[in-house]
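Archive entry. Fields below.
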Amino acid sequence: MSDSVDSLRDHLAPINDLESAAAVLAWDQETFMPDGGAEARARQLSTLQSMAHEQFVADETGELLDRAEEATKQADPLDDGASLVRVTRRDYERARRVPSSLVAELSKATSEAKQAWKKGREEDDFSIFAPHLETLVDLSVEKAEAIGYDDEPYDALLEEFEPGLSTAEVTDTFETLREDLVPLVDAIADRPQLDDDLLHRSYPQDKQKQFGERVLADLGYDFDRGRQDVSAHPFTTSFSVDDVRITTRYDEEYLPSAFFSMIHEGGHALYEQGIDPALDRTPLADGASLGVHESQARLWENHVGRGRPFWTHYFPQLKDAFPDALGDADLDSFYRAINRVEPSLIRVEADEVTYNLHVMLRFELERGLISGEVDVNELPARWNAAMDDYLGVVPDTDANGVLQDVHWSMGSFGYFPTYTLGTLTAAQLMEAAEHDLSNLHRRLAEGEFGPLLDWLRTHVHQHGRKLTAPQLLDRITGNELSAEAWLRYAREKFGALYDLSQSPSE
Amino acid sequence: MSDSVDSLRDHLAPINDLESAAAVLAWDQETFMPDGGAEARARQLSTLQSMAHEQFVADETGELLDRAEEATKQADPLDDGASLVRVTRRDYERARRVPSSLVAELSKATSEAKQAWKKGREEDDFSIFAPHLETLVDLSVEKAEAIGYDDEPYDALLEEFEPGLSTAEVTDTFETLREDLVPLVDAIADRPQLDDDLLHRSYPQDKQKQFGERVLADLGYDFDRGRQDVSAHPFTTSFSVDDVRITTRYDEEYLPSAFFSMIHEGGHALYEQGIDPALDRTPLADGASLGVHESQARLWENHVGRGRPFWTHYFPQLKDAFPDALGDADLDSFYRAINRVEPSLIRVEADEVTYNLHVMLRFELERGLISGEVDVNELPARWNAAMDDYLGVVPDTDANGVLQDVHWSMGSFGYFPTYTLGTLTAAQLMEAAEHDLSNLHRRLAEGEFGPLLDWLRTHVHQHGRKLTAPQLLDRITGNELSAEAWLRYAREKFGALYDLSQSPSE
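PREDICTED_STRUCTURE:
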């Protein structure tokens, strides 16, 4: 590697250390920190983040980038050095375009908005949050203008989470998806509902932890380079490729809550643990995009963890772990129970099928907010109308409707679509893996997860941010992002579960 | 407060945030971090520490100090601003005098020495560690010369932990102590030994935790501003006055191990939680010295926690917690058991009386190393001779002798004496508290710890580093550091326990 790339890398390393330190502090805040520590912790995080930002946007970074670009211009685009230069350049230009004054304004506004959102949600009063949301929309448009975009301001915001993907592409893909998804949900609704009573029995927390962590280890999550703790909202965080942690929360009266969140976060963590160690401590040591990250979580959670082969292997062990709750249950009834589809109000509790409609609704509304087509004050009404339209259910309160998610209060416009991008990407990847790996489902039914993990390591994990999401998909599948693979998967799986060939709406 | 003091404070705040962040990372390293995380963590800690150091020794700090000094020169020395300026000036001059090249050399040498010490200890081979120790001694002398001193290089090293105290004063105090302590230990050895069998029974960990944490809460440790976890070596750490954490380790076959370490660390933590919140996020938010810090740990651990009044209150509760182990025990036999005195090889396992001889031995040897009077190669022989002389026991191996402590491998010369300085200070403070608080021991026997804690808060805790250890002692007791109070306490307590008026050696 050339000296100038080394110099760039050396300059970026302590910035990465600051970001990792901030991640440790944030992890502690959610897992173990006593309440009293909150005020000091906010100050410490703010200091670490602003030091990292200042050092990154410094002129020195630009000068080192210029020299390293010169030195790598003949290199293969997948070369570590060339990739480092390319991705750092992208981050740098983006960060430099946003004036410090706007960064500070956004930071202050989100901190106030988050408080107002909490209060508004507690008191079921959207008007408490509305003025703050207006400010955040205005500042986000200002940020988008500063960064620049091709077609619409939302492009610039989406770019932060999905480099290389345009709002128009997402819109097209989601249109296709919705056209087939709404009828699918309707068809399911016309069929007799699957029974999930057996999931609502007594499942002691220590047994849930023991069983779940055994499964995580089987899937390939390395507990010598990670650990699992408890937090109010499950998340994955990484302090290096050798220290990737996950969290969960337990519901002793509902088995899926912790178990599928473990597999979901485990999927994120397998990605982070699988990044090439040579990329550690650089901006390349992260997911290609939020959507690709989510694809790894959804692939393990849904395609593997909610599949029949998986439970062919694990159901006997699950019965052993919970003899009281599952003594009278069989594999078929359990498989049906964990795949029950039912339109509901709350996104984070939604099933695999209806989840996407929650996401599409949010995408449409936030795109409208940023384009000016949707006014903040009409948001609750628009929300409720879309819920009725897509899911046939209408929130009884704004707390269970427009106020349910934290994202907008954090100014994170462009984040929501990545959930469904991940779902679609997972299906595209799974089709490719099924093509490449013979007898994949039989192997999963034997508890053999190594081939699938190795395939993901080779094609996805190791590359970190070297490839964008579209590049990655193209290399692996030869295709662009598309809803078709997921629709094929959903029609087949839920068609069988709900016996949809019998349905009058088919 | 003047603008120039505010400017200094604003400049120091993010440096304090970096140090606090490093403390969180170090805490995680000892409590929860998976093994794989070690390498990245070392890098992250090194980055945070060197950024904090660089920002502190910057010329800007000196300029801000100059202006703030000018603005506070008429102020009361106990004024927050004047104290901030005075203490920061002391730290700054000290830090500026040590060249960066020497800081880097010491950092490298200690990291290598720690590995060598570990290996030497495992293989019971002092020669593995010896050359590294020689390097550390040389570099420490160099550091002492750079800092400057009045009488001998050791002064400059001691000053880091005990501002305002000279080697000569410590030597004099320890001489007085040793003259009376060695005969006391001999006298105890001539008497029938106290029986501590009942401590070596089965004490389940969860019950130990439950009982110990109830006691900690009773003493005044605020679990909303702290928490207790498990680590190999117990410690206290502070991320702000509102987030002060302790750790312990459990031995299910020996009750005192966890319990007295909890009270000990709890004493450190009560100090940190009691610092005036106005001093938080400044260099003043710390103990006056390591000795004063240790005094708070020893006061609660020994004067309170190993006292008869304490167990008059708690022994019935302890019996309830451990009915199997203590069903046949009574308060007297328990009180005797936890105060058994017995010369032994290992400092951290030593009782309240002989502990000081372990410390004095280390102080004499390390002072000799720094002055050149003791050669590294004769250290094992000198160690063993002193053990025989003071305690009448000789290590069977160097692993159980000169290689038992980590401190020298960290280049921490001047640290050891603070353990006994803390013991002596605790006794001086306790005499003053007994004078000020009527019926103190009766109140302790009723589980009423508030008056003692309030007294310590008022006289010691709240001031943080505003006063040095000698200033603090003078304000509270009108006296200098002295061994007399502790000798009075030990003669009375252990005289009664071992019935020393009957002893032929009295």
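CURATOR_NOTE: The first strand of chain B starts at residue 228 and ends at 230.
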